[in-house]
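Protocol step 4 of 5: obtain the predicted structure for the target chain.
Materials: sequence only (see below). No template structures provided, no constraints applied. The aim of this step is simply to have a reference model before the mutagenesis design in step 5. Sequence pasted as it appears in the construct record:
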Amino acid sequence: CVVPVSSPVPVAECGLFQGSSGSEDEARPGTAAAAAAQKREERLRKFRELHMKRNEARKLNHQEVVEEDKRLKLPPNWEAKKARLEWELRVEEKKKECAARGEDYERVKLLEISAEDAERWERKKKRKNPDLGFSDYAAAQLRQYQRLTRQIKPDLEQYEKLKEQYGEALYPTSDSLLHGTHVPSKEGVDRMVADLEKQIEKRDKYSRRRPYNDDADIDYINERNAKFNKKAERFYGKYTAEIKQNLERGTAV
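Step 4 output (structure tokens):
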């Protein structure tokens, strides 16, 4: 520091001012470097957070793709089956709880049903027709099979006797030769005959001959022709009604 001789400022004060200015200049670069490092650290932290979020989103997307692929591979009615199985499990748990308490499950279930639901189910039962009628021969055969199997009353004593008599041969396989060895009992034959007679009687009721109407017009020459005329009238009667009336009046052109 150059101080003129005529300057009133002491030399000591000049030295003090010079030292203070130097320390401020040295502190400013350190403060700027610390701020830059802090800013860089904050940016790195945000970058790491974004990187973790991206990895998490990628993982969730992969899990969703796997779950969607599983759902597509399931049968179309899987949700209904799953709901049915869950309902059956709840029913079984409820039955076990009622059995542990010594209560009747059917009675407990009826107590939980409201009066409105009970009336609605009763109306639905009344509307339901137990006799579905004839739809096709396969359905009729299935209904006949179910009816016959419900009538079967197994004779366990006879079964045990046959089991002792034939042993393992009682359960035939593809290599078994049991043709002609079984002789039906008299009770079994009588039961079969009675069932066949019931079937014949029921068939006669359904295929009964319709009574003949003496007042109806005779437009046929035999029974086969009468059936054909009825079918023709059923399908084309509404189209030929006017022509028939004109022919009866004699005004047909």
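Step 4 remarks: The helical segments are 11-73, 78-101, 105-111, 115-127, 137-151, 156-166, 186-206, 223-249. DSSP finds eight helices and no strands in the chain.
Proceed to step 5.
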